[in-house]
Amino acid sequence: MKPIESIIFAVLVAISAYIFLRRIYTLFNFISLGKWEDRFDRLWERFKGMIYYGFLQKRVVQKTFGFNHLMLFWGFMVLLPINFEFVISGFFPKFTLAFLGDTLYTILCFLADVMSAVVFLAVIFATIRRVFFKPYFLESTKEAYIILSTVGLLMAAYFGLNVTGLGLNEKPFESVPVSAFIAKLLLSNNTSEKALYILNRVFWWAHASLFLFFLIFIPYSKHLHILASLPNCFFRNFSFPKSLPRMRFSKDISYGVSKITQFNWKDLLDLLACTECGRCLTSCPANIAGKEINPKEMIHHLKKNLMENGSHIIKSRPFDTIGRPPEDVELPVALIGNGDMSIKEEMVWDCTTCGACVENCPVFIEHFPKLLNIRRHLIMEEVKFPEELISFFENIEARSNPWGLAPSERGKWAQGLNIPTFSSNEGHEYLIYAGCMGSFDTRTKKILISLVSILNKVGISYGILGSEEMCCGDAVRRLGNEYVFDSMAIKNVNLFKKLGVKNIITICPHCYNTLKNDYKAFGADYEVFHHTEILDKLNKKYIFKPNKALKDERIVFHDSCYLARYNNIIEEPRRLIEIITGKPPIEMEKNKKDGFCCGAGGGRMWLEDDADTRINRERAKQAIKENPTIIATSCPFCITMFEDALKEQKDWENIRVMDVGEFYIEGIIDNKDSEDEKKNEEKRRVANE
Amino acid sequence: MHIVVCVKMVPDTTQVKIDPITNTLIREGVPFITNPFDGPAVEEALKIKDKYGGKVTVISMGPPMADSVIRKAIAMGADEGILLSDRVFGGADTLATSKVLAHAILEVSKKEPVDIIMCGKQTIDGDTAQVGPGIATRLGFNQATLVDKIISLDLERKKIVVRRKQDEWHEIIEVTLPILLTIERDANKPRYPSVPRRIFSEEISIPVWNNYFMKLDLNSIGLNGSATTVKRIFAPEKQQGEIYAEDENGNGVGTLVGVIIKKLEEWKIRSIQNG
After folding, report:
1. Is residue A162 part of a domain?
2. Interface A-B: count of C-beta contacts within 8 A
3. How far apart are the C-alpha atoms of A27 and A36, rounded to whole Å?
4. In this predicted model, what pLDDT tens digit does every residue of A361-401 receive, in sequence order?
5. Which of chain A's ends, N or C, has fewer CB atoms near its CB within 10 Å?
6. Do A380 and B12 touch (CB under 8 A)?
7. Do A368 and A408 lie in a common domain?
8. pLDDT tens-place string over residues B228-253
């Protein structure tokens, strides 16, 4: 290497480094535009998570092709020190990493050589996939091909450099087996040294320029994820975002998010970490059912919005200023609106908050909480929302239930069943929180009635709130009406405190999540159980003999998102089914934490659904594929959605939709009991009349 | 343009029960709400304000806690409110009520003349639909009742064109301002308040006018000024019980419709009017 080459190289490195670092500073500045949020707790755990999910790519490899990415990633990791050596040797030709010791250096060279070959193959596989077997969730962007070809050429240059180096006896053959193999194929003894030298320099410069190009290109392209996804894993939310932060309400503050600078900094980091792999898209039930929402596109649009508005802000202030602009800063591109840098308003209402996008994101991007923040703005500031929600909100506010039915009727489901009103003085251990569905929906009432029948049998003491019960506010919160939810939460928590409630049983996963997780910020101090958890416990304590009536049914089990994904209640309902049928339920392709929403979450239960894009129909089809006689689930909303979907086709009509608790209880109650139960029901009916 | 809207706090009648023994209303624990007809009246006023500018004042007569219905209207967008509250106003029938409200509106118009007064068509507790017309008569305003649509407003000519809802037809009339309109419940969907407006409405102070201020003759207001007295409140006897029907296959609705038609035939009810 001639001294002039070193000088040219040094200049190029300096220019590239300047561009690179300046861009990194700009990106850091972009992130600093967001609101402050403390994500610096439990640092050791964060570090471990970064190793696990970032370096070991735990979530990436959950999908088969993720292995290809793992190879690329580790190829890069191994090549890092070798490239370091390469750059330094560009300034000081004598420099090598040999000072690490012979063994270590040999291993390093060996691994780099093998991994370069692996990376080269991975690039070829990725290209073939994109060109010939393009999955719908990937887009063929120029960017992607630039990156793939750069990486491919970089590896080719590496081998060219090594092979010619071997020819010039610069490297020992045994440490670089792949290069040695190629050298044996291509080089012969009469290859002239001069030609080899020239080729070596050509490859060296090819490698150098590709390397520097790559360095600059990364932070300007979606391959920014190389830099942003490791910190994104580090600063991740430790648990699934099952609740939302409580808000403050006072004069002169804004609610929710209507411009990019109102997000938290971690939300903005999320945008930079996205590689557009499309896993959120393939798991989004609303998108699969044909709705407009597209979580991948949403993140991409937000990213462009950040880049555009962020550049505008940064340009308008001194270079060394970082941090949030004033709250009333005017931004050139609107957050809510049409175009490829904004979120369409209609899309905001499509989300069921099922959370499949978040669960499937390899780098812990939180998609739907961003939408909920936009909902908060639309509802609380702009009062723009689908028309049918007006009466929903008014009913909830005036009568604490979605239908506007008289609150005095709340306890009516329990009439004639001898169910006491909850009182801790009388030693009631559990409060049964019926919820709006349990209190007013005819189908759901049956689940409650079957639940209390078994609780009576084993002598568990419980009470209900009757007409004092109020709606928990789950849908109100998920729709973004935090102001109303806030007062509902305060009232409910105070009521529970006043009554000395210690344990709550609910049959509704949405009530469950709200009472348990949302109310924590409001001072909740009690345990919450879903009835499947209680039945599972009882089942361990008492031995009930199945009555064989349901033994031969083909049960498909559908997970409620708010139970499985939000609260990790996965095995309890399955165990209950297995007790009755003697075998585990049939699983659909999407199950457990990867379940597919019924379509009712996030307040969508109370929104009109477009007839052509019904999520429940999509899920019902998936269930029907397994040829069930009973579809079992554990949520009143899911039951409603399935029953509605099954009504659409004549030959689906014979399939029953059952709550798991109901199924279990029907499976253990002997015939004499059910005769009695029928008589009781008759009595109740007469009493009601 | 100055619009006054009269609103009332009423018990949520869907939740009112009648004591079976004394036959009186059980008012305990019954929540109070804004009269459902008044929301549309406020909304109509706000729609005019949105289009032509001006001011909307909300007036209510009732106990001190009735300020909540005024605040609700302010949350929707009304500019200010006045609560008419005094023990001596209590027990008023529609005559005495309209006198107090008319007097208050007269006071208000001294500062800023009133062009339009809006009332809900009726309240859900009294169901008389008399207070609106009573106010108009006492103030000498024109009146158009049962309005379900405001078609146009001509500020220069001081004319308003409204549609009145009749049993089986609509009537479109042009009237001269100042005018009192009583608004039908289905005239519109009242707007939902934004949170900043709600917080504003909670913090604004609502002046309370009592009779020291209004100086009305005690014999013309409250119980003394009422031309009618309530003798007895009772629940009408149920003529028929509930009907429950289901055939052997558990088909409820189909069977039920058959039973109902048969019953109607028995009772010689031959046709049911639309709506």
Report:
1. yes
2. 42
3. 16
4. 999 999 999 999 999 999 999 999 999 999 999 999 989 99
5. C
6. no
7. no
8. 888 877 777 766 667 777 776 667 78
